[in-house]
Amino acid sequence: MSFQFTLQKVLEMKDYEKSDAELAYTDSVKKFEEIATNLYELMKRKEVLAEENNKKLQTGLAISMIQWNEQTIEFIQKEIEELQMMTQKARIKMNEKENYLNFKAVDLKKYEKMKEIKLQEYLENEKQEEQRFLDEISVQQFVRR
After folding, report:
1. Structural domain includes residue 50
2. Could you say which protein family the record assigns here (predicted)?
3. Total tally of structural domains belonging to the chain
4. How far apart, in whole angstroms, are the C-alpha atoms of residue 138 and residue 145?
5. Which one, 2, 8, 34, 76, has least CB within 10 Å?
6. For residue 1, what pLDDT is reported?
7. Would you report the helix, strand and coil content of the chain in percent, each value rounded to 5?
8. Per-residue pLDDT, 60
9. Measured between alpha carbons, how far is 34 from 93 in angstroms, rounded to an integer?
10. Residue 143 and residue 52: Cα distance in Å, rounded?
11. For 27-40, what is each residue's pLDDT tens digit?
């Protein structure tokens, strides 16, 4: 008779749930990285525009160009603020997914540990059964002499 874990289906379900949580976490990390990269690029663009604007101001620039440059920088700043909010939301979501993944990993580990304990008990019982059988054979051989 071979070992059969009574909660094998539950263990498999927990493993599936953990895998699903891993995928969700990976997706949330990708999303966060994507938004954070966009934010970084936009901030870099704003910095470059501000430097160019300062250089042009020192050499002399028409008022309309100054206004246009300032409007562009303000527009970029608004986009940056939106992306910062999106980044914060993505970070929160990523942390939630990570916590959920950790919960599922611990849950799976509990069932794996239970299976390990039950397997050890099964092996110990098998060993005891075998020992009893061998003892019985020894007694029968002794009695036959």
Report:
1. yes
2. Belongs to the FliJ family.
3. 1
4. 11
5. 2
6. 66
7. 90, 0, 10
8. 81
9. 14
10. 106
11. 999 999 999 999 99
Q: Which phi and psi angles does 97 have, rounded to 5°?
A: -65, -35
Instruction: Report the alpha-carbon distance of residue 133 to residue 10 in Å, rounded.
Output: 35
Q: For residues 17 and 23, what is the distance between their CA atoms, to the nearest angstrom?
A: 10
Length of the chain: 145
Is 113 inside any structural domain?
A: no
- Predicted local distance difference test score (pLDDT) of residue 17: 96
Six-digit token string for 74: 């303000």
**Residues whose CB falls within 8 Å of the CB of residue 46, separated by 6 or more in sequence, listed in order:** 73, 76, 77, 80
DSSP letter string, 12-68: HHHHHHHHHHHHHHHHHHHHHHHHHHHHHHHHHHHHHHHHHHHHHHHH---HHHHHH
Gap between the Cα atoms of 106 and 18, Å rounded: 9
From the number of C-beta atoms within 10 Å of its C-beta (0-12, 13-18, 19+), residue 28 rates as: buried
- pLDDT grade for 131, boundaries at 50, 70 and 90: very high
